[in-house]
Amino acid sequence: MNVAIPVVDKDRHKYNIANGFNSTGYLCIYSTENENFTWMDVSDLADNMGELLPALISRKVNNVITLHIHPMALHVLGNKGFHIYRSEGSNLIENVELFNKDQLPIYDIKTSYANTKICGGECSVCSTECQEEKI
Questions:
Q1: 124: buried, middle or exposed (CB in 10 Å: 19+, 13-18, 0-12)?
Q2: Contact, 92 vs 14, CB < 8 A?
Q3: Which of 9, 78, 94, 127 is the most exposed place for a label (fewest CB within 10 A)?
Q4: What is the pTM of this model?
Q5: Alpha helices in 69-132 (DSSP H)
Q6: CA neighbor of 18 nearest in space, from 90, 74, 111, 106
Q7: Which of 30, 2, 1, 5 is nearest to 90 (CA)?
């Protein structure tokens, strides 16, 4: 079984979990079978986000650990049989240890909506100014 984890980069900050898939271009794939870590550019897996899901499936990834995930991505991944776990902070090693002990919470739709902004998420990947929805 393999786990995909979005990370800040694959060099200096490779042990830091990124804010989510939409805020980074790097992934760590963790193999539970041999406890091996592999860091890569997302572009090495897929030319675009639409091709990322089949690429993850082909690498036998069926789990994701992330700080944030948009509701639609949670829905799509869930429908494909992925289990999405909410990381406890941004330390990759600590979160993998929690995953191995079955101590990471599963992401649910309510939690994914809690961090969604009106513009769709992270300002760092958006060319417009984010504004929190006024309720």
A1: exposed
A2: yes
A3: 127
A4: 0.82
A5: 71-79, 92-100, 109-114
A6: 90
A7: 5
Alpha-carbon distance 75 to 134, whole Å?
25
Amino acid symbol at 55: A
The pLDDT, as a whole number, for residue 82 is: 95
Averaged over successive runs of 10 residues, the pLDDT of the chain (135 residues) comes to 95 94 91 96 86 92 94 89 95 97 89 62 45 40
- As a whole number of angstroms, the distance between CA 31 and CA 118 comes to 36
47: Cα within 13 Å, side-chain hemisphere: 0
Report the alpha-carbon distance of residue 28 to residue 42 in Å, rounded.
10
The three-point CA angle 61-63-64 to 5° equals 110
Domains, the chain, in order of start with CATH, read 2-125 (3.30.420.130)
Q: How far is residue 100's CA from residue 31's CA, in Å, rounded to a whole number?
A: 11
